[in-house]
Amino acid sequence: MTAGKTDRPAAGHILRYVYLFEEEQRQGRDEGVKERFVVIVGVEGSRYLVAAITTKGEGRKNAIVIPDEIARTAGLAPGSAIVISEFNRFTWPGFDIRPLMKQPGYIAGRLPPRFTAKIIDAIAAWRAAPVDRD
User: Fold this and answer.
1) Mean pLDDT across the stretch 104-118?
2) End-to-end CA distance of the chain
3) For residue 124, what pLDDT band results from cuts at 50, 70 and 90?
4) Torsion angle of alpha carbons 74, 8, 102, 17, nearest 10°?
5) Which residues contact 74 (CB under 8 A, 6 or more apart)?
6) Which pLDDT score is estimated for 8?
7) Could you write out the DSSP letters of every residue in 12-49?
8) Nearest to 39 by CA among 94, 104, 126, 106
9) Does the structure show a pLDDT above 60 at 89?
10) Using an 8 Å Cβ cutoff, are 64 and 117 in contact?
11) Which end of the chain is more exposed for a tag (fewer CB within 10 A), N or C?
12) Domain segments of the chain: what residues?
């Protein structure tokens, strides 16, 4: 990554992002409560779709647990899960992505293409609605 330039990530890439949950938006918030990892689940031109990664997803019907081996390879905690019932949509680069702390750039890791496709299919099947961040 060059100074002043932001490389464009793709589906499956993991970013640090201030995610706004739908429930928080309904409560009147326009900013998320904390930074968290998210996975890119779609790119529509300059519009990005990201799903929240949580460590409290096991047993939730609206989340898919990331197998520990995939989580470890992607730099995520064991037991992490991806929320499939909602997603954030924003125009790249947006105001809510955060640079990595230990290295330059924004891409913290990547999920394998087949697992990413499984997540995208689950979000589509759930008919998740976006939380617009622009």
Assistant:
1) 96
2) 25
3) very high
4) -80
5) 14, 66, 108, 109, 110, 111
6) 87
7) TEEEEEE---HHHHHTT-SS-SSEEEEEEEEEETTEEE
8) 106
9) yes
10) no
11) C
12) 13-132
Amino acid at residue number 44: E
Q: Six-digit token pair at 49?
A: 């779709």
Token representation of residue 123: 């979000």
For residue 120 the two structure tokens come to 């995208």
Determine the residue type at 6. T
Please give the mean pLDDT across all residues of the chain: 93
Q: DSSP string spanning the chain?
A: --TT--PPP-TTEEEEEE---HHHHHTT-SS-SSEEEEEEEEEETTEEEEEEEESS-TT-TTEEEPPHHHHHHHT--TT-EEE-SEEEEEETTTTTEE--SSSSSSEEEE--HHHHHHHHHHHHHHTPEEEE--
Does the 13-132 domain belong in CATH 2.30.30.110? yes
For 99, what's the count of Cα atoms within 13 Å in the CB-facing half-sphere? 11
The pLDDT-based confidence of 6 (bands split at 50, 70, 90) is low
Q: What is the arithmetic mean of pLDDT over 68-91?
A: 97
Cα angle, residue 132 at apex, residues 91 and 33 outer, rounded to 5°: 100
